């Protein structure tokens, strides 16, 4: 029992110092913005769709790298409700993580109308204190 108590104290001490169990939000520069370079809103495209991400007044850093004024892209596909802004974003088919610092992707999308939106996440995939989020665009896949 004593060994278990010591181990738990060590785990919580390490977690407290590293923030491993805390949801850490980062502050984005006031003038930071994220946007689509391509495709344009209203574009008619073929699949796979090349999507290029734009970012102003902020840097891109891979997930896990905690540098002030940086983050990495998350792409919201046909998502009607935004993810919680105070927790790590769960990866899914509709919420894609680009934690390697990618600034573009090729998307396989079914024919039809789709919405796309970009949301920056910090080193832990958590949106910044002032969320850096793009306008939602609509594209049509032939």
TrEMBL record:
Domain of life here?
Bacteria
Query: Where does the record place the DUF4399 domain?
Result: 51-142
Ordered alphabetically, the record's keywords are: Signal
Which InterPro entries did the record assign?
DUF4399
Q: What is this protein called?
A: DUF4399 domain-containing protein
Is Signal among this UniProt entry's keywords?
yes
Task: State the signal peptide span.
Answer: 1-22
């Amino acid at each position: 029992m004593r060994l278990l108590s010591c181990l738990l104290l060590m785990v919580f001490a390490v977690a407290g110092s590293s923030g491993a169990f805390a949801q850490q939000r980062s502050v984005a520069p006031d003038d930071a913005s994220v946007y689509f370079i391509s495709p344009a809103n209203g574009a008619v495209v073929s699949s796979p769709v090349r999507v290029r991400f734009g970012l102003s007044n902020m840097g891109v850093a891979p997930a896990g790298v905690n540098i002030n004024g940086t983050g990495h892209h998350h792409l919201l596909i046909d998502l009607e409700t935004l993810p919680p802004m105070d927790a790590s974003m769960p990866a899914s088919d509709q919420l894609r993580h680009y934690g390697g610092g990618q600034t573009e992707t090729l998307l396989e999308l079914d024919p039809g109308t789709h919405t796309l939106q970009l949301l920056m996440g910090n080193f832990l995939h958590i949106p910044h204190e002032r969320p850096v989020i793009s306008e939602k665009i609509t594209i049509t896949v032939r």
